[in-house]
Amino acid sequence: MLPTRAIVSLARARATVSAVSTSRRSMVHAAARANPSTWRSRPSDLVPRRWNTSSSSSSSSSSSFQSNYDQQQQLAPLGRALVATTKTLKSLLIFSTSTIGLGFFVWSGAHLYLEQYKCPTPPNLSSRVQSLLHGAWVREEYAMDPDVAQDYYKNAVDFATEEVAQALGLRLVGYPSASQQLYSNQQPPSSSSPSPPPPPQQQQQQQSQTSPRDPRIDQLEMDAALVEVHHRRARFLDAIGRDDQAARIWDRLWRMTDAAEAQSSDPATAATLKRPLMVRASGLLFARRAAECWMRLGRYDEAEEALAWALETAVTMEAAAAQNPQNGQQQEHHHHHPLGKGFSVDTQSDEIGLLTVLGALYARKRRFDDALSLFVRALQLTRQRKEEVVEQEPAKDTTATSKETPVSNPRDKWHCREAILMNSIGETLYGAATSEGSSKATAKEKASGKKQEESKKSSGGFGSYFWSSSSKDTPADEKESESEHRSDMILNDKEQEALGWMQKALVLAQEKSGKERDCDECAALVLNNLGMIYEMKGDKTLALEQFKNAVVHATTAQDYVGLESYMENVARLRDEAAENESASLP
After folding, report:
1. What are φ and ψ of residue 277, in 5° steps?
2. Beta-ladder partners of 215
3. Which of helix, strand or coil describes residue 190?
4. How many CB atoms lie within 10 A of CB 335?
């Protein structure tokens, strides 16, 4: 128990403190009412504070707070505005920095994902060119915008050319007019209006003033990374339907492969450059793609030249690889490394593909015998390759879902290729038979017209009246009818042979239906061809059934281009059947 005097003194002290605080609050309120614009009441003055026994710490903190508050109150309105603006700018700076950092992280992560999984680029390109190629791929595959994608590819070609030139120590002053004309979107000058040649003296002056071509320019054009950028640009132009520009790029690339083989095999040049050059094997793809574009443009001579070179090169490489297996393996590895994805290393597969494309070219040019020999050779190689492939059990992947998804058998690819080639042989045989029949029909019409003219000129004679009035033919007509009958039988046999090849192709393709897309596409094409043949023969019911089955297989293969054509055939026959039914009604 405390003494009575201590209790009394403590009560007096508390009363004194409360009185002081009350008087202080009353003074603050009075000052605020007197000048409300400049005086602000503090919470510490208005709210009663508890009694704190630690007087030293509370007094120091209250004194510091009081000094800071007094300094803020002494600032002018402009100073307070500056302080508020500084705080706002600081917050904005923190927010913008964090936003930019997050955006850069997302941007770099997206490009890293595209580089690793979706759109890998050549290793010798800078990040700027890689970003342009990634952007072009996105505009080509997802956010489809051909104009923007074309700008991306154009800038990628320009920047890649500058980077390779800097690596070679080459200054691009006026370089190179031929390459600019080749890779630009401008059309080459027409041959109908050639420019007149300069006089001999001026030619000599130009030759004397012209410096020899720098060999580094050839190395620049044959750089593997730059060639890959050109190839991607040509592939994009081909996809959007600009076959002329794509064909000129690919044509230039395959023509450079002869010189590229000599320079890439030179150890001194390779040590100096430290950059891989494109190899001769890469020209196989370029020549084939160029030939396909030339064929769509109807320029069969250029297509035949490219395919003939590619086929000769593939056969030569296969023979060299058979003689020297180690060299062939090194060449295949070098072939795969510089240009990356999209380039085949299997020369036998390239040979089969080139034979197929060249056979299709000859079939379009109505050189059916040449086309048939090429298709048969490709079929033999395909069957040989199919036998070489070891029969493997399809693996099962049960990690993703509970359902088992079998992986396709390696032999199924060659199985579908065999069906495609058999269909091509059937088409070629049928085309040869129909063209022969049409030519004979036109010749027969011309001969009958001549006979009618001769009969009109020689009318009035007894012999002519006898042969014309007789129910039998003349001896010459009998011989002609016998020959025509034999030719008709031969043509019928050729048509039956063609139908046999097509039906065999259909059986092979339907064996792997639902497993291989190529087989479903082949089955749809064969069924459409059979439907067209049956329609020409007058059996429209069977033709309609074939067209419907073609639609089913095209839907399974997701061949939307062919599906549209097949559905048009179905609709056309249905409309004709409906018109015939309405016409037969009374």
Report:
1. -100, 160
2. none
3. coil
4. 20
pLDDT one-digit tens code per residue, 447-459: 555 555 554 444 4
Contact assessment for residue 224 and residue 275, using Cβ atoms and an 8 Å cutoff: yes
Domain boundaries, the chain: 126-185+215-348, 366-389+409-440, 509-586
Q: Specify the higher pLDDT residue, 459 or 103.
A: 103
Residues 471/464, Cβ–Cβ less than 8 Å: no
- Range of lowest pLDDT (75-79, 505-509, 535-539): 75-79
Closest CA to 315 of 280, 361, 362: 280
Contact 392, 409 (CB under 8 A): yes
Taking the model in full, what pTM does it have? 0.61
- Residue 171: exposure state from Cβ atoms within 10 A (0-12, 13-18, ≥19): exposed
Cβ atoms 366, 302 nearer than 8 A? no
Q: Which of 322, 312, 320, 304 is nearest to 350 (CA)?
A: 312
For 363-412, what is each residue's pLDDT tens digit?
A: 988 899 999 999 999 999 999 888 887 554 444 444 433 344 445 577 78
Residue 581, C-beta contacts closer than 8 angstroms, at least 6 positions apart = none
The token pair at 104 is 């850069």
Which two three-digit tokens encode residue 226? Answer: 């730059």
| Whether 159 contacts 128, CB under 8 Å | yes
pLDDT value at 190 more than 50: no
